[in-house]
Each structure stands twice: as C-alpha cells, then as structure tokens.
Amino acid sequence: MAEDVPSPTATHPAPAPSAAGRPRRALGTPLAATLSAVATVIGLLVLAWTILFVTKGRFLKHSFERIASSQSGRQVKVAGDFQLYFAPINVKFVAERITVSNPDWAGRGNFFSAAKVDSRISTWSIVTHKYRFNWLGLQDAHVDLQWDRAGRRNTWTFKSGDEGGDPFELPAIRRGIVQGTMVRYLDPRMRIEAAIRVHTVEARDTRVENSIRFDGNGTARGTRFTMSGSLLSPNATVSGGENKLQLHAEAVRTSVDLAGTLPGFTQLEGADLRMIMRGRNLADIFLMFGIAVPDTRSYRMNAAVTRRGDEWRFTRLKGRFGDSDLSGRFTVAMKQPRLLLTADLATRTLDIIDAAPFIGYNPDKIEAQGGAGTIERVGGAPRILPDAPLRIEALKNFDARVNWNVNRVRANRLPMSNIKLGLTLNNRLLKLSPLNFSLARGTVTSDIIINARRNPVFTDYDIRLSPTPMGVLLAGFGVEEAGTSGTVKARVKMTGVGNSVRDSLANSNGRIAIILPKGSFWTRNIQLSEIDVGTFVQKMFEKKLKEPVQINCGLLGFTVRNGVAAADPILIDTSKNVMLGRGGFSFKNETLDLAFRADSKKFSLFAGQSPVGIGGYFSQPSINVITPELLARAGVGLGLALVASPVAAVAAFVDVGDAKDAACGPVLAGANARAQRDDKGRPRDDVGKGTTAKSEDGKRSKGERKEQRKKFLGIF
C-alpha cells in the first residue's frame, strides 16, 4: 500500500559532505591582521613624520594657539614663524614673536613674550608631563610678574577658574642659551615696581656653566632703588629645586644684603634667608614699604627672614643704632585693609642721645653734633622742642602692636632705667600705654594717646611721677644725697593740638603739678633765693650749707592755657621761710620768665628781699641772683646813709619776718592758687591768681612787667 512505503528522507539520512567539499580558513589570519594594523600605524606615523618634516608643522600653528590658550586660560599667539615636528625623535618647537597674555585682572600686556624660542623637547617627557628641554634657545624674552591689589593672585599661577591652579615651573634644560631676558615685577599693594635684567645663561649637559646673574632697578613708594644678585645654584634652579640666592640692594642711604635659599625659582614661602641692613636712618627703608617708625641714628641690623602665608617674619634680630643695641623679632603681615606690624624688642643699654630722634629731632644733626644737635636758632632765639611732623600719611597704611623693653639708659644727671613701652596703632589712633620707666628709685607712668584721625593731630598727655627721692634725682646737680630726705612727685595732664611735638605743646591746655612732701633738702645753692646778706658770701664762696633745709610742703603748680604756663601757685613752706614764685613759661617761644623770693618767718637784719629771676629759654636758662631791685635797695640805703645816718641805711635791708605758714593740705593736693590757705585757714593773698599777664605770644609788655614787679616785689 502506498501509505506503507517509507519516505526516503525519513529512513536514510543524507550523506555527510566530504572533506574536500569544506571551505578552507587562511593560515595565520590574526597575526597578519595585527601586522597589517601595525604597518598601517607606522605608515601613518612615517607619513605624518614626513609631512611634518617637509612642512615643518607650520600648518599646526593655529591648532597650537587654540589648544595652548585653552589649557592655560591665556591667549597664546605666534606672530612670526612657527615650527612643530620630529627631528628626528625629539619634538622640535620654534616660535617667533610668541606671546602669552596676562590674566584679565592684570590688564593689557603679556605674561611672556620672546623674539624667538628655538627648542628640542624630549618626546617621552611630553607623555609624562615632566618636560625636559634637550635644547633651548631663548632670545629677547620678557616676563611680567604681577600681584593683584589684594595680594591674592599673581600672573605666574595659571588657573582654570577663580580658584586652583599651579604656579609656572621652569622645565629641566640639558643644553641651551638664554639671552636678553627682562623680568618686570609689580606689587600694587606694596607700591613696588622693578625691572630686572638677567644676564646671558648657558647650560650644557643639564648643568648651567656659571651662576645666573641679574641686576635692575625700580621704585618703592616713589623711592628709587637699585639691585644686583645671582642664583648660586642654577642647576637646581632650572629644574625647580632649591635655590641659593644672593641679593644686594641700595636705596635712600640704605644698603641691604640677602643670602640664603628659596624653595623654588618664584617661591618665597618657606624661604630661609639672612638679611644684613645698614644705613643712616632706619625710618628710610620702612617708609619705602609704607610703614612709619621713629627716626634713628646710623644703624646696622641683621636678621633671619622668611615668609609664612601672608607674613614676612624677621627673627633673631640683632644690631645697633647709634651707641645703643637692639634685639628681638618683628613681623609684617599682609592683612586687610592695612598691614599689621608686630614686634617684641629689647635693648640692654639705650644712649639718651639715640632716643632724641624718636620724638622728632634731626638724626643727622644728632649724629654730627651730639646733644647740641637738639637746639636750633629761630630768629636768633634757641629752640629745643622738636618740630618734625608726625608721618600721618604713612599711619594710614598699617596697624601695629609693639613691646619694647630697655634695661638701662646712659644719661648724664638722669638716673633712668627699666623702660617699658607698649605701643598700639589702630587706624591712625596711636597709644603709648604703658610708657613707664624707673627714675631715681621712683617710677614715671605715662599714657599718651595720639589721635591722627583728626587733622591737626590731637594728643592727650597723662604723665605721673611716683614719690621719688630728691637726693638721687638731683645728685648730678649738686644735691647732697646723704642729707636729703625729701621726695618729689608730679603729674602732667594736658591736651594739645598739632602735628609735631612743638606744635602740640604750643597749643596745649592743662595742668602741671610738682609736689614736695615733708622732708629735708641739702644743696650748695638751696637758699640763694633768700639773698640774706649774712649767708650770701658763705653760699657763693664756701659752696655748701652747714645744715639741710627742712621742707614742710611745697608745690610748683602751673596752669597751661593755649601753650602758656602760669605759676598757679609756686609755694614752698620751709622751717625758716616761705618761698613764693610768680610768672611762667611759654611753649610757643620756649621763653622762661619766673621770679622766686623767700619771705622769712623770723626777723633778719640783712635780707635783700629781692627775688631770684629765672629767664632765658628752655635750652639756655639764665639765673639772675643780684637783680636790679637789690641794687636799687643798695642805692636807697646809700642815699639814706648820706642824708640821715648809717642806721637809716640798714633799714633798706630789714626783713620783719612776717611770712605766713602754709596750710599743707591744699599744697600736697596740688590745688591751684585760689585754693591755697595759710595755717590759720585764711586765703593766701601772696600766691597770685594763676596768670602771667602775658599776651598770646607768651611775652609781656613793658607796662605789664613793671606792674607785676610792683605787686610781687613791693618795691619802695
């Protein structure tokens, strides 16, 4: 049956194809493909090499400018010939009139420009980003190094944004020559601008043949300076290693030498430098950086110098100014909105002449004339108050915190020691507090505030002298210390307006009080004011007293109005007499016009009753013991002797001894003349009213002087 016949395909599988009928795979096809690919790459490289070699890669100029500009964030231009190709293995790079722009904040101009850069760069170093020049020829290059006004950004740090980025580092150089290189440095914050010329540099086998020498000039706050120096380790310098630096600079009668190491070619952070500085006036060099310090005599200083963050640190400071020593440390911090100067200083011995320039005396005159250099002649009259103006403009640039300790002061007749000065400056408000020192076993304590925020400057003086032994204080002036048990204390409380010490005092107001508590006083000239005929010869020729004067209490008080100080009062009560004084002195023209007289408490047959006059000037006082009034009395006595009898002549020199004892309470309190009383509690009518009857210029008219004499002297 048909359905029982099996299908041929179902019962007999199809025969397998014979081996001869299979497709054959080519032997070694993967290796051939690899070799083919390698050959293609090599061929392309050879083609590229050939194209680049033939064309010198000049067609890559615009691509180079675009890629370099994108990577650096600066505009890179090549205005002349450009070559970039393999020769044969190194990358040969040539660019004529190449420029790299400054960042936008630095304004127009270029960070780098060169007439020609001719180099061969290791190809492998490009791959590893550790660039090595097997040859570099650099011709007429200019580099512009700038800081921004805030001191936070610079032109040699390439940034991809507002933050980040790395400073430019010089690559390693095997062989090369650099000619005609100029570097410009600009720091607007410090107002420093410099142009530096780098001498020709040659390198062979990764070593520079000699030191890299440079010189230049510039200005700092308008003051010109010159500089020269060298990098003594140029082989480390060109590879970004540690740099040994020597630098010499001169400006405004000052020379500075720096020597040491820099961590990198353009890196000051962590520098280890030693500075030696010498000059005529330390203030000169500081003013170049906008910092006002007191004037000094000629000086020589040395210190270790480094930079940490925004601070320049000067440590291990040692040196001398004039005949005084100075040591310690100070730091200049680049703070906002002003620099901050901090210092801790110490002096073993301060010569008093060296301190004179601190308050405004001319250091050059002090250097040449010593103490005589403090005196000037104005219209024939001597002046001793300093008139150098405070450097107000410089005070705007910085704040300060200074501590200075002085162990000993070398001064004739002035036993000073242990000076402690604390100085703070905050936005032109200068405080000298404390300004303390030991004086003859007493202490002077001062707080002086100088407000330069006002124009003219306003100064507040508060100076106190604690009870001090007069014998020690005045030993240099003839006081017999062994017989003097008296003490003295004082206070000056004034305010003044003016930009110099002289102007400030010439417009001052306030009070000066010198108080003498109970004690004895022994000196060669203590009773000259009494002019008692019986002891006058003894005092003038024997030059000593047989016993001390016993002081009950005393006050030398002055009220200062517009620069003129009036006795208010001068009253010294002793066991034998009461000494009174009138007149005053003027800070305006530095004149003295004082008269002292002693009224005896006991009857004295021979008493001149004539005052001792103190006149002249602060720097040249004069003492007039035998005054015209005493001579007038002698004339009257002689006339009486001729007309009447010798007994009548004696009457001209009689002192009835009616001086009133003083109530010491108001005296010891430093009270003014109106508050003074006698020992009975009655107001005194012999101490004046605290005025000098002087005009605004500190001078009295002839009529005023005559009237004052009549009131004070009681002339016949």
Describe the SSE topology.
Layout: H1 8-11, H2 29-55, H3 61-72, E1 76-78, E2 82-86, E3 91-101, E4 110-121, H4 123-128, E5 132-146, E6 157-158, E7 166-167, E8 172-173, E9 176-179, E10 181-187, E11 192-198, E12 201-204, E13 207-208, E14 212-220, E15 223-231, H5 234-237, E16 243-251, E17 254-262, E18 272-279, H6 282-287, E19 299-308, E20 311-321, E21 324-333, E22 339-351, H7 352-355, H8 363-369, E23 376-378, E24 381-383, H9 392-395, E25 398-410, E26 416-426, E27 429-439, E28 442-451, E29 458-469, H10 470-473, E30 487-497, H11 501-506, E31 509-516, E32 519-521, H12 533-542, E33 549-561, E34 564-574, E35 577-586, E36 592-600, E37 612-616, E38 621-624, H13 628-643, H14 646-650, H15 664-668, H16 702-713
Parallel strand pairs: 5-8, 5-9, 5-10, 22-25
Antiparallel strand pairs: 1-3, 2-3, 3-4, 4-5, 6-7, 9-12, 10-11, 11-14, 12-13, 14-15, 15-16, 16-17, 17-18, 18-19, 19-20, 20-21, 21-22, 23-24, 25-26, 26-27, 27-28, 28-29, 29-30, 30-31, 31-33, 32-33, 33-34, 34-35, 35-36, 36-37, 37-38
Summary, kept brief:
With 716 residues, this protein is of the alpha+beta class.
Task: Label this structure with key terms.
34-stranded mixed beta sheet; two-stranded antiparallel sheet; 16 helices; disordered N terminus; alpha+beta; 716 residues; disordered C terminus
Return Rg in Å: 45 Å
Helical amount:
10-25%
Total strands: the figure is 38
Q: What class would the helix/strand composition place it in?
A: alpha+beta
Number of helices: 16
The stretches of 5 or more residues where confidence is low (pLDDT under 50) are 1-11, 160-164, 525-543, 645-656, 694-716
The N- and C-terminal alpha carbons lie at a distance of 190 Å
Shape: rod-shaped
Largest sheet: 34 strands, mixed
Mean pLDDT: 79
